[in-house]
Amino acid sequence: MDGALDCFTRLRPRLLGLAYRMLGSLAEAEDVVQDVWLGWNEAGAAQADDAEAWLAVATSRRAIDRLRRARAERARYVGLWLPEPVLTQDAPATPEDLHEAASDLSVAFLTVLERLAPQARAAFLLREAFDADYAQIARVLDKSEAACRQIVHRAKAQLREQQPRYRVPAQAHRRLMQRFLDAWNAGDLGAMSALMADSATLIGDGGGIVATFPEPMVGGPRIARLLFASTLRRERGLRLQAATINGRLGVLRYFGDALKSAQAYHSDGERILAVYVQRNPHKLRRIALGATARLG
């Protein structure tokens, strides 16, 4: 029992990371991983020769089932849907950071993944983010290895046009964001606009609870003016706080002690290309409590 618990505890961040990338919801991912633990504790630990493979397969299958149900609910979602943002540890400032290890956790990437059907999403993530072999993917999908190769190939093709093109080191993104945040705090609209790409987009998720734009806003100067407008209400206690959101430096916007939005940013290292503004209070609850996630 102790060995099974130690094994599961060691692998839990990796399983949670897989389920979160599948579902875009940390709360749902935690439910999936808890279900996997119950199955592992009751039967899997005694039967599995390869614990990591057994747990990855079980997590993937449960996440696929959960995602199928979630997609039906999201079809009725009010407004634009964005994944639940999570506070993560700062990306390590090492040479390996040049490879952009956290890119598959970013809000930009998770938003693109929503275009994939559940099985395709699982196959793509297992192969590309978790380096699973096709035999393992075949176990998850209950298909042949050849069929799984085709699923991954088609998923890559489907994502190629929408996937974020720029995979810059976290340090370059951090430097850009610090300049942008300094300009925002100083109320310098010109500097804010200069750091936005002309074709930048902003997507907001209010969940039908908080007002936001029903369609993406396009245009760096327009977005800069929108963000700048909040500085005109400093008497209400505006506070901007830098935070690592889904592996990248973003911004938490408070009025007084109340968290009003978590903003994730996508950049090319020189200009901001996209802003993802999460305003749905249900999806902000965990961040408001200061919870940090460990996602393998």
UniProtKB/TrEMBL annotation:
<dbReference type="InterPro" id="IPR013324">
    <property type="entry name" value="RNA_pol_sigma_r3/r4-like"/>
</dbReference>
<comment type="subunit">
    <text>Interacts transiently with the RNA polymerase catalytic core formed by RpoA, RpoB, RpoC and RpoZ (2 alpha, 1 beta, 1 beta' and 1 omega subunit) to form the RNA polymerase holoenzyme that can initiate transcription.</text>
</comment>
<protein>
    <submittedName>
        <fullName>RNA polymerase sigma-70 factor</fullName>
    </submittedName>
</protein>
<dbReference type="InterPro" id="IPR014284">
    <property type="entry name" value="RNA_pol_sigma-70_dom"/>
</dbReference>
<feature type="domain" description="RNA polymerase sigma-70 region 2">
    <location>
        <begin position="8"/>
        <end position="71"/>
    </location>
</feature>
<feature type="domain" description="RNA polymerase sigma factor 70 region 4 type 2">
    <location>
        <begin position="108"/>
        <end position="159"/>
    </location>
</feature>
<dbReference type="GO" id="GO:0006352">
    <property type="term" value="P:DNA-templated transcription initiation"/>
</dbReference>
<dbReference type="Pfam" id="PF04542">
    <property type="entry name" value="Sigma70_r2"/>
</dbReference>
<dbReference type="GO" id="GO:0016987">
    <property type="term" value="F:sigma factor activity"/>
</dbReference>
<dbReference type="InterPro" id="IPR007627">
    <property type="entry name" value="RNA_pol_sigma70_r2"/>
</dbReference>
<dbReference type="InterPro" id="IPR032710">
    <property type="entry name" value="NTF2-like_dom_sf"/>
</dbReference>
<dbReference type="GO" id="GO:0003677">
    <property type="term" value="F:DNA binding"/>
</dbReference>
<dbReference type="InterPro" id="IPR013249">
    <property type="entry name" value="RNA_pol_sigma70_r4_t2"/>
</dbReference>
<dbReference type="Pfam" id="PF08281">
    <property type="entry name" value="Sigma70_r4_2"/>
</dbReference>
<dbReference type="InterPro" id="IPR014303">
    <property type="entry name" value="RNA_pol_sigma-70_ECF"/>
</dbReference>
<dbReference type="InterPro" id="IPR013325">
    <property type="entry name" value="RNA_pol_sigma_r2"/>
</dbReference>
<dbReference type="InterPro" id="IPR036388">
    <property type="entry name" value="WH-like_DNA-bd_sf"/>
</dbReference>
<dbReference type="InterPro" id="IPR052704">
    <property type="entry name" value="ECF_Sigma-70_Domain"/>
</dbReference>
